[in-house]
Amino acid sequence: MTGQPSSAVLVLTFCIAEALLMAGFALVPSLLPQLSQRWSLSATAGGWLGGIFFLGYILAVPVLVSLTDRIDARRIYLAGATVSALALAGFASFADGLASGLCWWWLAGLGLAGTYMPGLKALTDRLPVAVQARGTAFYTATFGVGAGLSYLWIGLLQERLPWPGLFAIAAVCAALSMLLVWCGIAPGKPLAAMPVGHSHWRSVLGDRRILAFCGGYFGHNWELFGFRAWLVAYLTWTHARTPDSWTAMPGLIAALATFLAVPASILGNEGAQHWGRGRWLQAVMPLSGVLAVVVGFSGSQSGLVLVPLLLVYAASMNLDSAALTAGLLTETSPEKRGTALALYSSIGFAGACIGPIAFGVALDAFGRSLQAGWTAAFLTLACGVGFGRWAIGRIGAAPPPTHVS
Fold it and tell me: What pLDDT is attached to residue 397?
């Protein structure tokens, strides 16, 4: 190719590639009841299997995303998508217990580290400044589209195909994502950035506004990925206890809950632009925390009440997603944006790792077969977003940014 496509085509290409890459995202959460039974896993072990994906992410993302300040992020995306395809194929072929499952799912998380934020950086590097915030909102919202489609197709096919076949299909989708970016996005020139050394990291770590967004993202991901890791298992438990047509297809409900992230995330960013980012985030994060508590104490309700409540909660926890990421990007100067994204992703996805584990620990502590266990588990989600709300409140105490992009 001789040049880059239009802004709309750029956004569409990266969003489709991300959705393909996300095809395997819900494999472990959707198959957790089956894998737990097959591999005799406790709730804590199941939480580790869900959370290890994000441990792989946070170990790799500081290096991979900070590199995008020096080299074209497209190259990192291509490598990350290749790793994802290999990890999913490896899980399909060789995972036969907790230890091997942890290894391959960890590697899949490393692949996400090479695609999600590097893909965002590759996109924003190619977009005009005027459309970067909205491009970011659509890209981050596509994470929810991809995750929702992942829950949907897995839920529809897991009764028809053995679980290794599902991992193999996801591996093919990851390979297609790599090919789409390779063929559809032209290589770009690296930014004229200062070397990414100790002084560069110090400038990011010393920016209290960046740290506030990182803390908010930590709490958001704790809640979001703790919820997504255990939603199918929770619906499976409620249906086994009290069969109900509303809970008979947990994969479909999980898909719908995840799809709601898309309009919620986009509308959340528009709300932040209209009412002010700090004010918006400080309002919507406590809302999802309250709903986490309400859901936790609603397990005895019928599916007619519980499922709509879960869907409202799922939407509420995404009202801050794009607003947080767009806030970080627009308030960070271009020459250190990659390093800021690396820190943001590392801290944020540490929350994604902790959320499923904390949920599983609470289940084991209070009883996986008891309502008290699930109530305690949902309260851990409220704790996560509560921390995020506290962190984002530090924005008001931080000095304004010296650069506006």
Answer: 45
